[in-house]
Amino acid sequence: MQLEQDRRPAVAAHSVAAVRAAEGAALAGLPPGAPDALMQQAATAVAVTAARALREATGGIAGRAAVLLVGSGDNGGDALWAGVRLRRRGVAVTALLSADTAHPAGLAAVRVAGARVLRVSSPPSATDLAPLAAADLVIDGLVGLGGRPGLREPATSLVDRIPASAVVVAVDVPSGVDVDSGALPGPHVQADVTVTLGAAKRCLLLPPASTAAGRVEVFDLGFDVPPAPLRRLDAAGVGALWPVPAPGADKYRRGVLGMVAGSAGYPGAAVLATSGAVRAGVGMLRYVGPDDATRAVRSAHPEVVAGAGRVQAWALGSGVNPDADDDQPAAIRSALDSGLPCLLDAGALEVWAAGVHRDPDDASDRLLLTPHAGELASLLGTLGLPRERADVEERPFEHAHAAAELTGACVLLKGATTLVVTPDGEARSQAEAPAWLATAGAGDVLAGVAGALLAGGVRPLDAGAAAAWVHGRAATLASRAAGGGGGPIAASDVAAHVPAAVAEALAP
Ligand SMILES: NC(=O)C1=CN([C@@H]2O[C@H](COP(=O)(O)OP(=O)(O)OC[C@H]3O[C@@H](n4cnc5c(N)ncnc54)[C@H](OP(=O)(O)O)[C@@H]3O)[C@@H](O)[C@H]2O)[C@@H](O)CC1
Ligand SMILES: [K+]
Fold first, then answer.
1. Closest ligand to 158 CA?
2. Which Pfam families did the record assign (predicted)?
3. How far is CA 225 from the centre of its chain?
4. Which site in 28, 45, 150, 258 is 20 to 30 Å from 246, CA atoms measured?
């Protein structure tokens, strides 16, 4: 069951070790009994969210059937105490215990509250599984911070039998995910909502595990976690980064972008990439490409100046074929030699990786690479780390980070969730885009938007993340403009909605 996805909150995502340390420090300063108070707060948050989700999905709360999936640790304790609160609201609660032990106080309380409790055998019997078939709501308290990736029996069978019609609320994280890496090594819960406690965990921002979390609600437990290197920008965060022209600014001071894009085979990529840059508000755009592509660009955007000249940054490679008999690879090499900030997309990644132009010390703070998963796999192969596209898709953060470390550059890995990663592990995860954005030419528009930001003096990490946000938001606006709940979009529609997305980010 899918709940309506609204715009997710801005979050920083933390490692298990960081959350445990912060929790330990907070507990050390509290009087005896306070740990239980934290669990009570956590359970209240889970129960409130679950009741809301239940009402949204079924139109009511009392009389509905909830199943608690309960593991042996405190994650199961949270679920049991949430069950106590749901009983008070008239929900029929069944607790399925997946281990020999369960949080003792929570178990006693849920029994007193009138819940049915079943200890599930391994593998589960038909009787053990029967309550799941009738569940309107499932609360996943199998494992949280203490979970090893993947699940074992009987948890695996329980998760397998969650009905598609039930609304699923995960406590802290969807059970089965690798909490720190964001990998999905085996069976796992697919949640509609995840109520994460104290602070968000890395798996909630890192794909593919983030796709198992559904909507993420961060519940503050009042302890301080140090700033995390992994974050998701929201509208206000993008607005704070976006270069806004000062009164009296001229086009040169706002930033001139040079672009080497397109080829005889792909003139459209040049049009789309220039559209992205122009719509993102670049001061001026100089375009370098073959005659046909230049004509197409100038007819679409008369404001674009043809030919190289003085610029503040370069966007290179969209629609460039390194094997074509044209001057584009030479133009890319010359731009790289300038020492200016450069975005490297598509064909430019190949030109750069194959060339003598790679110097990790020179790359940091200057280069933004924008591969998709297949291109990242090829790039890693060129760098001596042979990988398949599927490897990158299984562990995208790890591979983007490996490429950043090997090259010294900032790597933006395009996907349904776009990751932007620096060599030192600072990272942004942006997931604003509707699935309709998976369309030809969308990456060219993104390159133009990010290039415009580099020309405006924004550092590669921020430029990549802000561009991904604006690109995803523009796609949403374009899709909504199609009518109803959102319709198909073309890449040119996305470019057309970039100014509205930027305006949203800049709105006070
Ligand atoms: N942070 C905070 O301030 C607060 C945290 N709170 C809550 O506490 C949670 C952490 O609780 P926790 O430390 O007890 O660990 P938890 O996640 O329940 O799992 C441990 C148990 O799972 C088992 N197990 C492990 N892997 C498994 C697998 N693959 N498949 C199957 N079983 C597996 C393992 O058993 P074992 O394998 O050792 O026999 C072990 O007994 C946290 O996520 C949050 O919900 C809140 O109450 C509020 C305050
Ligand atoms: K869980």
1. 1
2. Carb_kinase, YjeF_N
3. 21
4. 258
Rounded average pLDDT over 168-189: 97
ipTM for the whole complex: 0.97
Evaluate whether 106 touches 80 at the Cβ level (below 8 Å): yes
Rounded distance, CA 132 to CA 162, Å? 6
Residue 4 has pLDDT above 60, yes or no: no
Higher pLDDT, 1 or 308: 308
Establish whether the linkage from the previous residue to 488 is cis, with ω within 30° of 0. no
Sheet holding 284-288, edge to edge: 200-201, 11-14, 230-232, 427-430, 418-421, 410-413, 367-369, 342-344, 313-316, 256-260, 284-288, 305-306
- The first and second tokens of residue 295, run together, are 């004509």
Closest atom of ligand 1 to 149 CA is 29
List the domains of the chain with CATH numbers: 11-232 (3.40.50.10260), 235-506 (3.40.1190.20)
Question: How confident is the model over 35-46, as a mean pLDDT?
Answer: 91
CB-based contact 115:94 (threshold 8 Å):
yes
Query: What would the mean pLDDT of 194-207 be, rounded to a whole number?
Result: 96
Q: Is 434 a known ligand-binding residue?
A: no
> Binding site annotation covers 414?
yes
User: What pLDDT is attached to residue 161?
Assistant: 97
**101: which residues sit within 8 A by CB, 6+ positions away?**
72
Angle at 222 between CA 220 and CA 226, to 5 degrees: 90
Q: In 9-100, where do the E strands start and end?
A: 11-14, 65-70, 92-97
Say if residues 206 and 415 touch (Cβ distance below 8 Å): no
Give the position, in ligand 1's atom list, of the atom nearest the Cα of 78: 47
DSSP SS3 for 218 = strand
pLDDT value at residue 277: 98
